[in-house]
């Protein structure tokens, strides 16, 4: 009985480590936290991220996306 429990524990541990290392459960949802630049925003997503990073720092900013109508530079934390 103890041998079976030990095997199950090791198997579960390996599955958890694989999932954690491959980021399968990592959420793509980030929180909108700031806006940067003029409206409408004429730059690219890279320009937007650089604006966010320069103004607010990275972290907390992890992503910058030019989106919306008219385009706004949205910073995500």
What are the main properties of this structure?
alpha+beta; 77 residues; 43% helix; 2 helices; single chain
Ordered list of secondary-structure elements with their pairings:
Layout: H1 2-22, E1 32-36, H2 45-56, E2 63-67, E3 72-76
Antiparallel strand pairs: 1-3, 2-3
How many structural domains in the coordinates? 1
Number of helices: 2
| Helix coverage percent | 40-55%
Mean pLDDT: 80
Give the strand order, joined by hyphens, for the main sheet: 1-3-2
In the predicted model, the low-confidence regions spanning at least 5 consecutive residues are none
Query: C-alpha Rg, in Å?
Result: 21 Å
Shape: rod-shaped
Order of helices and strands: HEHEE
What is the β-strand count? Answer: 3
What structural class results from the helix and strand content? alpha+beta
The first-to-last residue Cα distance is 48 Å
Please report which band the strand proportion falls in: under 5%, 5-15%, 15-25%, 25-35%, 35-45% or over 45%. Answer: 15-25%
Largest β sheet strand count, sense and barrel closure: 3 strands, antiparallel
